[in-house]
Amino acid sequence: MGDVAIDKDGETMRRVIDMRSDTVTKPTDTMRTAMANAEVDDDVLGNDPTALRLETEMARIMGKEAALFVPSGTMGNLISVLVHCDVRGSEVILGDNSHIHIYENGGISTLGGVHPRTVKNNEDGTMDLDLIEAAIRDPRGALVYPITRLICLENSHGNTGGRCLSVEYIDRVGELAKKHGLKLHIDGARIFNAATALAVPVDRLVQAADSVSVCLSKGLGAPVGTVIVGSTNFITKAKILRKTLGGGMRQVGVLCAAALVAVKENVKKLEDDHKHAKLLAVGLNKIQGLHVDISAVETNIVYVNICKDSSTNAAKLCKTLDEHGILVMPDDDYKVRIVIHHQITVNDVEYTLSCIQKAVTGALSEHVE
Ligand SMILES: *Cc1c(COP(=O)(O)O)cnc(C)c1O
Q1: Could you tell me where the DSSP H helices lie in 112-212?
Q2: Which atom of ligand 1 is nearest to 159's Cα?
């Protein structure tokens, strides 16, 4: 089983197995050492060496000219959309189930005056190309229409369970954008998960994109931060907007040092995360009363459906698991979301499966272990 700790009374206690998200990872000892030893300076003045090192490295890995460290994925997407849509009343085409549209406070509208035009997200995270094209405004209608300037994709796609957009699909959206004089932004909060699952080099995967926002504090396990990448011109404008939004940070190298360790050490662990997610999915699907669409588990996210005639529901199951040191989140009344990251072991997965099995059959409270 997973690591054990000794509590005050000398009892052995299992550590908490936290699978609410891949944002819950704790910085590793190597990260903390790197943070303590980071060489820093004022990054608003542009000379924090560790921040510059991270940005150079991320631009190289992503195959773009330049990069910028920002505090969060939300700010990374906001800055990117606003740089591409620098005229108020611009319109962006994005998925109706996308993170930018649902979970970012509508910032592109409230702060940027950008109008969202949603297109239906399919179950695999794509939007149909003909629907995207149909949503592009005819510039001849500029007297009444907003002006389309940007298309946003999300890869992997969070709300559809971490499913991946293929390089062929992204290239085709890129061609469509070019044909209509639009920019393409990828919300790549989990782009390394997608690249790993697809076995495509990450720079190739985002080749068609004008900008990408990459979270360092999801599966990569850094404590804080996102990097946006794009052309030198894009990053120059992004840097000004970051300051406007209050995201200029001073000795930020302490954070970038951890992020550098994350990129160096944890990208290669994503493959194991995906294996563990699959293992969990297959195991859960064998439990009477639960259903997992295994083919939809492409990366590190598992959605478990609880049969409506079961004796439990999502809230009850999460509560029972919580009492046994396992944290997961309900997604709706009969659906639970479980997210794997590098601090979840095979043993954790096996323990979780046995607890869920017992919880669903109502046997968990009688015998815990
Ligand atoms: C987490 C996430 C973000 C934003 O991340 P924050 O750092 O929490 O602001 C953006 N897009 C997707 C798909 C995400 O999963």
Answers
A1: 129-135, 167-179, 191-198, 202-205
A2: 13
CA-72 nearest atom, ligand 1: 7
Residue at 368 is within a domain: no
Checking if the pLDDT of 94 tops 50, the result is: yes
Q: What are phi and psi of 58, to 5 degrees?
A: -70, -40
Last-in-domain residue among 240, 265, 290:
265
Of 265, 285, 300, which marks where a domain is finished? 265
Q: Could you tell me if 102 and 129 lie in one domain?
A: yes
181 shares a domain with 101:
yes
User: CATH number of the domain that 70 lies in?
Assistant: 3.40.640.10
User: Cβ(125) to ligand 1 under 6 A?
Assistant: no
* Residues 42, 9 within the same domain: no
Total Cβ atoms within 10 A of residue 11: 9
Mark whether 154 and 198 lie in a shared domain: yes
Choosing from 99, 155, 164 the residue with most ligand 1 atoms within 8 A of its CB, the one to mutate for a pocket test is 99
Query: C-alpha distances in angstroms, 288 versus 19, 161, 246, 284, 323?
Result: 22, 22, 51, 9, 22
Q: Is the pLDDT of residue 178 over 50?
A: yes
Say if residue 34 is in the same domain as residue 19: no
Distance from residue 312's CA to the centre of ligand 1 (Å):
30
Q: How confident is the model at residue 9 (pLDDT cuts 50, 70, 90)?
A: low
Ligand 1 within 6 A of CB of 101? no
Closest CA to 262 of 52, 43, 27: 27
pLDDT tens track for 229-276:
999 999 999 999 999 999 999 999 999 999 999 999 999 999 999 999
Same domain membership, residue 111 and residue 165: yes
Out of 20, 74, 101, mutate this one to test ligand 1's pocket (max ligand atoms within 8 Å of CB): namely 74
For atom 14 of ligand 1, which residue has the closest CA?
A: 189
**What is the whole-number distance in angstroms between the Cα of residue 187 and the centre of ligand 1?**
8
Residue 104 CA, ligand 1 centroid: distance in Å: 8
Tokens for 304, please give them. 């478990």
**Beta carbon of 298 within 6 Å of any ligand 1 atom:** no
CA–CA gap between residue 333 and residue 274 (Å, rounded)? 26
